[in-house]
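Lab channel / #folding
Pinned by the channel admin:
"Please post every new chain as: sequence first, then the structure tokens as a reply. Keep commentary short and put observations after the output so the thread stays searchable."

First post following the new format, from NK:
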Amino acid sequence: MASVASTYARAFADVVLRDHLDVNRGLAELRAIAALLAESSDLRRVWENPAIPAEQKRGLLDAIARRDDISKQVRNLIAVLIDHRRIHFLDPVIRQLEKELDARLGFAEAEVITSRDLGDGEKREVEARVEKLTGKKVRAHYQQDASLLGGAVVRVGSTIYDGSVKGQLERMKEAISS
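Reply from TO:
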């Protein structure tokens, strides 16, 4: 499944970058179609049913694309998934596409866990520090964990930067015990 999603995601990322599409708009359009598909079992049955002619499926897609002002490129990706009976891979394709575009555009996803809610200025400062550490632009997602006592724990991919008070106390405890 991952290789199927990766294949479509890489191909669509090529289109997005070649045609200079608005990345956020394209992803939003794909998510909107995925949400429509998730909430409409009738639509899902039509697009997944091999007995229904492809022209009828694409006609329905075209009506949705016109109604929701979906770009031609996104419409074409959905049509390819329908034609190849792979529309059920839409969610994994979107997730893989996000990763592919982030990698190509130099973004890193960062999970930032703090002991308290941060203000906008503090978030910008944390993101600037993470960007300096990673050398990439950062898309940060914030969570709270009061057990940290203070500071922050940042996860970028498989790398963890622990600047929390709890982490510092644990490191001190290990140093004293050894």
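NK: Residues 111 and 141 are 5 Å apart (CA to CA).
TO: also worth noting, The chain has two domains: 2-103, 107-177.
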